Amino acid sequence: MALAAVWTSGPWAAGIGAAVTTLFGLAAERMRPRVCLSGQRGPGLTRKTHPRGEDADPRPAGEVLRTAAGRIPLLRHVDRPELAGAHPAETAAAPPAYIRRDAEPGLRAALERTRFVLVVGESTAGKTRLAYEVARTRYPGHAFVRPLSRAALAEAVRIAGRRRRAVLWLDDLEDFLGAGGLSGAQLASLRTAVVIATMRVQEYRRYDAREESRLTGSDRDAWRAQRDLLHQATVIRLPRHWSASERGRAAAHQGDPRIGAALRAGERFGVAEVLAAGPELLAAWENAWAPGANPRGAAVVAAAVDCRRAGLRRPVSRAWLRELHAPYLAARGGGDLQPEPFAEAMDWACAAAYATSGLLIGNFGAGLTAFDYLLNAPGDGPVPDHLWRGLLPLVEPADAYDMGLVAHQEGRLARAVEALGLASRGGVPGAELPLAIAIGDSGKPRRAAADLAGIARRRAGRLGPRHPDTLAARHQLAFFVGESGNDLAAAAQFAELLADVAQVLGPDHPDTLAARHQLAYFTGEGGDPRAAARQLEALLADRLRVHGGGHPQVLATRRSLIWFRPCEPAYAEAELRRLLAEAEGAGGIGPDDPHTLAIRGSLAAMAARAGRTAEAAGAWAELTADRTRVLGEDHPHVFYSRLEWARALLARDRASEAAEVLTGALARAESVLEPGHRHLRTARELLTRTAGRAPAADRPEDSRRAADPG
C-alpha cells in the first residue's frame, strides 16, 4: 500500500515537490501527490474552471489522508514528517535528522496522562516535527487519522472513534475551529483515540487570559466554545529560538549542510525556522516590490496573507487573487513598478523557493493559502478595508462566521456585524448570539437587548433557564440593558443571574466572577458606589485567590474598585498610576490592551475632576488617537474619548477647538450609533455650549460613568 500525499503543510499546503516521489521505508511504497503546485494535478483530483478559464472557487474536498488503496495508514507507515504537516526543509530530498527538543520530555509525559495534547509555537518553530517524532515512536501501531480540511473533520472523528487505537491528527488546529469545527461533544465521543494538535501561538493567544480580560462583559461568549475546547488540552509550548542544549545536539548533525547553515545563521532565528526557509521567503516577498522585480506577485501574496489575517480558514482561488490583489499593487505605485503579467506573478508566488515551499502553497485547482510564516511580518497594520470589502461577498456563511469573530475580537465592530449577519442569515448554528453582541458593542445597545431577549427566551424554552448557553445569553442581555441606560434594571438582572450561574458553574468559574463584576459595576453606576466598592473588594480577594496578582482580570477589578471606592482624589490617582505602570510594564497586559486604555481614561477623568484642564485635554487627545489606532474610528470608546476631550477644551474656554473636535465626530457617530444613544445626547449638548447658547453643566450624564464598563 502507498500513502497518497495530498497536502503537507497544514490542511491546505502542498509542495513536498519531487521529494514525495522518492522511495521510502517500504520496498514497494511510493508517496504520490494528488495535488501539487502551479496547477499540476496528480491522479484522482478533478479541477473545476470558470467559464472564462479561471479556477473555480475552492471548496474543501472533505478528504482524510489515506493510502493509495484508500485505507487509513498506521503511524509507522507515515515515514515523512511532511505527511503530518511539517514544513519541507531546504533541498528536501530527505528530511533532515530530527534534533531532540527540550520540550520533548514534557510532551511525552503529557501523553502519559491525557488524550488531548496541543503543541503551541510560532510558525516554523518545529511544532509538527516534534509532535510527529514523538507520536511515531509512542503510537506506531495506531491509525493516523488526519483530516485535510474542516469539511473532513466529522469523517475523521467518526473514523478515529471507531478504531480501538487511533491518533486524530489536527495540524494547525485553528483551521478546525469555528463553524462546523471541532466541538466538545466530538472530543467526548473519542473514548480511546488520542488527539494531537498543533497551533500557531498568535492564534492561541486569541483565547488566553489577556483576551478573556478584554472580552469580559461584552463579547466574551462569542468565543466561549472554542476557548473551553482549548482548555481541555494539555498545552506544550515550543519556543522558536533554540536553547544552547538544543543547538549543541544539532551540532552533532552539522555534516548535513542544511543543519550546518541553520546553525551558522546564529541565534537570531531558530534552527527549524531556517530549515524551512522562513526568513528567506519573507525577504523574497519584501524584495519583490522593487520596480521590475515581481511587484504583482508581491501584491498577490499580500492579498493571500490578509485573507488569512481576516479570519478566512480555507484557501482562495486564483480568480479571487486576481480580483483582490489589484489595490495592493496600486497602493505601492501601480504601473510605475513595471508589474509582470498575472500568470507570471502566480508562477513566482507559487514556486518552491529553496526547495521548500512557496510564498503561496496549495494548487490552482484546490486553492492557495499564504505560507504561515508571513502572517506576522513586522509592521503589519489592520487588514485594509479594500480586502475586506472584496473578500466578504465571495465567502460562504461559515467562512463569514470565522471572519466576524476575528473582526469582533480586534475591535472592528462594523465588519463583525456585517460578517456575522451574513453567517446568521446563512443558517450558521450559534451565529445569532455573537451577532447580537457585535450589534450592541458597535453602538446599538437597545437593539442588542431586544435581540438578546429573544435569544434568551428561545434558549430557555429549548435548553432550560439554567443551561450554560442560556446563562450566556442572559449575561449579555443584562449587560446591554445597562448599556442602554437602565443601570438599576441591569443590576437586578445580574443579581438574579449570579445566583444561577454560581450554582450551575461554581463560585470560581470565570462566568460567575464576570457576573459579579458586572453586578458591582451597574450597582455603582445606578447610584450606590459604596455598595459597588464593597462588592468589588470581595471580588478582588477571590480573583487574587483564583488567578494570582498579575492576572488581567485582577487589574480590571482593581481599576473599577479605585473608581468607585470613596477616598481622597490624590490617593485614587496614585493608585491608578501604579496600576497603569503594572499594565504597561514587563509582564503586563501591554499599552494597547483595552483595559490599559481604560485605566488611562480613568486618569484623564480624575485630572478633569481636579481642575487640571490642560492635563485632561492632552490626556484625552492622546487616548483618542491611540483608541482610534487600535479600535478604529467608529468604535464607541473612541467617540467617548473624543467627547471628553471636547469637554476638557470647553473647560479651558477653547470653544472653537472643542467644536472642531465634535463636529466631524458627531456626523460620523449619527451614522453609527442608534438614535438616542447617550454619546449622541452628550455631543449635541457640548456643541450647544461651544456656540455659547447654554451655560456649562457641572457633570453631564455621560461623564459620570466609569471610563469603560468592567
Show the helix and strand layout:
Blueprint: E1 4-5, E2 32-33, H1 104-113, E3 116-121, H2 127-138, E4 143-145, H3 153-162, E5 166-170, H4 184-189, E6 194-200, H5 201-204, H6 209-215, H7 224-231, E7 234-237, H8 244-251, H9 257-264, H10 271-275, H11 278-287, H12 295-309, H13 318-324, H14 326-332, H15 342-350, E8 360-363, E9 367-370, H16 385-391, H17 397-409, H18 413-425, H19 432-441, H20 445-463, H21 468-483, H22 487-505, H23 510-525, H24 529-547, H25 552-564, H26 569-584, H27 594-609, H28 613-631, H29 636-651, H30 655-672, H31 678-690, H32 701-704
Parallel strand pairs: 1-2, 3-6, 3-7, 4-5, 5-6
Antiparallel strand pairs: 8-9
Helix pairs in contact: 12-14, 12-15, 17-18, 18-19, 19-20, 20-21, 21-22, 21-23, 22-23, 23-24, 24-25, 25-26, 26-27, 27-28, 28-29, 29-30, 29-31, 30-31
Protein described:
With 710 residues, the chain is mostly helical. Helix content is 53%, strand content 5%. The strands form three sheets. It has a five-stranded parallel β-sheet, sandwiched between helices. It has a two-stranded parallel sheet with strand order 1-2. α27 (594-609) packs antiparallel against α28 (613-631) and α28 packs antiparallel against α29. It is globular.
Tell me the structural class: mainly alpha
Q: Supply the number of helical segments.
A: 32
Coarse shape: globular
CA radius of gyration? 27 Å
Number of strands: 9
Percent of residues in beta strands: 5-15%
Low-confidence stretches: 1-61, 213-219, 694-704
Q: Helicity, in percent?
A: 40-55%
Taking the alpha carbons of the first and last residues, their distance comes to 59 Å
Strand adjacency order, main sheet = 4-5-6-3-7
Largest sheet: 5 strands, parallel
Estimate the mean pLDDT confidence: 82
